[in-house]
Amino acid sequence: MDWSRPPTHLEPPVVLEWACRLTPDSLPRLRSCRSLLSLLLLDSDATPWVEPLDLLSIQPAARPEPGRIILAEADGAPLLTRAIVELSDGQWRARRDRVDADERVVSPLGVAVRIHQRDGVLELTRRWWRCAGRLIALFSSAPRIAAVLAQLFAIGRKLAHPLTPPLALGPPDKLTAGVREKYDRPSEVEAYHGGLDEGLDPVESEAVRVFKPRDRILDVGCGAGREAVALALSGFNVIAIDIVPAMVERARQNANARGVEIEFRVMGTDSLAFPAETFGGVYIGWQIYSHIPGRDGRTETLRRIRQLLKRDGVLLLFQSWRGYTTWISRARLVDGLRRFGRLFLSDALSEPGDDLIRGVTESGVYLPLAFYHHFRGAEEIRLELEAGGFVESHTEDGLWICRPA
Questions:
Q1: Separation between Cα atoms, residue 68 and residue 345, nearest integer Å
Q2: pTM value surpassing 0.85
Q3: CB of 24 within 8 A of CB of 77?
Q4: Whose C-alpha in 24, 198, 220, 269 is 20 to 30 A from the C-alpha of 97?
């Protein structure tokens, strides 16, 4: 596959959630949507047909049929599931494609019409996939058989494109340029601007308590300024950086609109131009760290940050991890081949865990350009922190509180 060219086009998305989780807070937006809905999910255990960071196109208010993957509401929360049988009141019996999943009564919000995956588009409206879904639904009373069938259909499709992502993704500068291109899109800027009023979430609010009052804080990867503005409103002296000029400009506008003074700079982690021991704290928001190509690049970034911190300074890193979804997975195969190949080809192959994630432009073009590293466990992150000169004093659900070693 030519990864430099957009493989397909989408209808312009009505709702685009970057790496979102379906939570009860999402329901008002999901219920009110009447045009095509696009969801880029961080994780999904509904069916092996949907993998983390796949983008789902969902037709709201569409009438389901047995076997279709649907977005539904149950017990006050949204979920992805498979429709089984329609009930008399417009509700459906539904079940996820898992042996341990329970059958539930749900209210459909929409029907999945396609899944945009790294190796192409899975058109769920085509006869083959509709028949496959009906067959799985037919065996819903035998959960083990239904789950095996769903897995076999997913494996069959993956066998056609076994090396996804490619073994070699390209040099670090090209990968960084792809990250910049993705987040420089007006649709991405607007999406991050839309979360400004939310401020810090509960985990972030609790974490920033480790910073000292009125400390100078460096916000790395500030986006449209959600965290930087919240930190400034909390009394911190904030300097915020991002590699995307459009994001920095929108963040500057947002800070001015809220009457807080923040110094913004267009700057990457490879060029942190500040004197030593400038900051009492450094804040790296959710998953920003995963966009830095290469273990050497990430550990070198940590070394620079350590130099910028005061001796009693604190690094707050928000970075999650996830293992392989199944024993038979393309990610596991690709990572294994990379480990073996790098013994002989050195840096010619990408590192295990390296991936390309896709962005959607304002015109609906689906771009597989942005680098993203999947950490396979907490220990991988911990080892990089140690190599960068930090000791983690606390970690929980992706929150790392780190101090200079």
A1: 45
A2: no
A3: yes
A4: 24
